[in-house]
Amino acid sequence: MPCPSRRTLMKLGATAVLATVSTACSTAGSPTGTAGAPAEHPSASPTGRAVSLPAPTGHWPIGTVDLHLIDRTRHDPLMPSKPFRELMVSVWYPADRGGKFLIAPWLSPAAAADWDKHSAPGMTIKTGAVDWQGIRTHARTGASAARASGKLPVVLFSSGDGGDRALGTTLVEELASRGYVVVTIDSTYEVDQVEFPGGRVERAAPLPKKLTPKVIAALLEKHSRTRVADAHFVLRQIEALAHGRNPDTQGRPLPAGLPAVMDLSRMGMFGQSLGGSVAAQLAHDEPRISSAANLDGEFFGPVIRTGVTKPFLLMASDVNSFDSNASWKSFWAASTGWKHALHLRKALHGSYTDLQVIFPQLTDHMKIPAAPELIGTINPRRSLAAQRAALTAFFDLHLKQRPTTLFENPSSRYHEMEVLR
How many other C-beta atoms lie within 10 A of the C-beta of residue 244? Predict the structure, then answer.
């Protein structure tokens, strides 16, 4: 196999990566280029295959806003030359109907162009083959928050290692449409590309030239610590936002009514892959995070040994199990709160990302050799429906105190989903 980009590292999960990439990358450098270099912005291909995202199923229309945040209290741990840590986050929320607001893109323009050139080839998709810039969400940028929704729980989202925050859009939009404020976080210099205001793109720091299992494990531990610190910082900015202050570095206008719908007494977090481990650690560290979910991620850091005392949902693909993943076994044994583990049959690690619904739209028209090892053979619509149902039921139960029977017998509604623990 070729030396993997971060997108490839994301696809199998940390456990499988440790076993597969060390030989392939023993002498190769990172294909992701130089971090902080000026981004090239090729035009979108006029013949690129069009892709759409499934609409959320909740009652509320959705709004979204991007925030540029700077943490001046610490040097950037992934780019030591930077005297501060710089992040992009997006806030998704129930919105009022009406108003002339543009539909938000899945990826911002410069990030989409960079993805087309650098990230898509790592997933065996040729540059220009897909109209990545044309993918649209179902959220209107800057739309007024729906005050009629009342005070809403706030949930944070963290993607897999190297994964753009956009890769969780289908799940994030579902939660927002069902009455949640969701904050998605990018990890600058770890993610393939992050676009900042003005079209500046910061790319991922180069991977070490020799990716041995020991090097990869240390890298993932470092990324985990960085993301946990990022999440603590973002929580402080969310608190400022809820109290009517604008944390955006440029001071760009916030959506009308957004602070009024945020209820910081009910907060949770979920993530895919590495992001799921970050969610667990934050639930352990932060009194404000009262429940968390991990979508098929290995655990890293102290939480492996300490577990959590709060409600926790673990969702597995065919890649991970309690028998094959020592971090799962240790975390589960140490966790003493409400906990439930579900397994999606025929799903793989990338099934818990938007690739689950994007790839099937492409494979009828082009060959994508990486697709089977990324998303498995599960029916994509059923996979997404089961994930949305489980995640919503979990947060409804623990942040809204709405009872559910889904976890007792999930196979009665989704034959692809079974109780793992």
Answer: 10
Tell me how far CA of residue 18 lies from CA of 22, 52, 188, 316, in angstroms: 7, 33, 23, 18
CATH of the domain at 184: 3.40.50.1820
Interval 191-244: pLDDT, tens: 999 999 999 999 999 999 898 999 999 999 999 999 999 999 999 999 999 999
| Residue 115 DSSP symbol | I
Nearest C-alpha neighbor of 61 from the set 92, 94, 91 = 94
- 251: three-class secondary structure by DSSP: coil
Residue type at position 223: H
Q: Nearest-5° angle of CA 26, CA 28, CA 32? A: 130
Please, what sign has the CA dihedral across residues 24, 295, 70, 175?
A: positive
How many whole angstroms separate alpha carbon 89 and alpha carbon 183? 7
User: What phi, psi does 244 have (nearest 5°)?
Assistant: 90, 5
- The count of other CB atoms within 10 Å of the CB of residue 398 is 22
Residue position matching structure tokens 């990230």: 119
In our burial notation (b when 16+ CB lie closer than 10 A, e otherwise), range 202-232 reads: bbbbebeeebeeebbeebbeebbebbbbbbe
Contacts of 159 (CB under 8 A, 6+ apart): 165, 167, 168, 184, 186, 187, 191, 271, 272, 273, 274, 275, 353
Q: Is the pTM of this model over 0.90?
A: yes
DSSP code at position 203: E
Domain that holds residue 12: 6-419
DSSP letter at 117 equals: I
Residue 1 lies in a domain: no
- pLDDT tens, position by position, 17-30: 433 333 233 223 33
Residue 73 within any structural domain of the chain: yes
Identify the bridge partners of residue 157 per DSSP, sorted by sequence position.
184, 270
- Give how many domains the chain has, as a whole number: 1
Is there a domain that residue 205 lies in? yes
Closest CA to 95 of 155, 146, 137: 146
Residue 346 lies in a domain: yes
Question: Is beta strand 181-185 parallel, antiparallel or unpaired with respect to 193-196?
Answer: unpaired
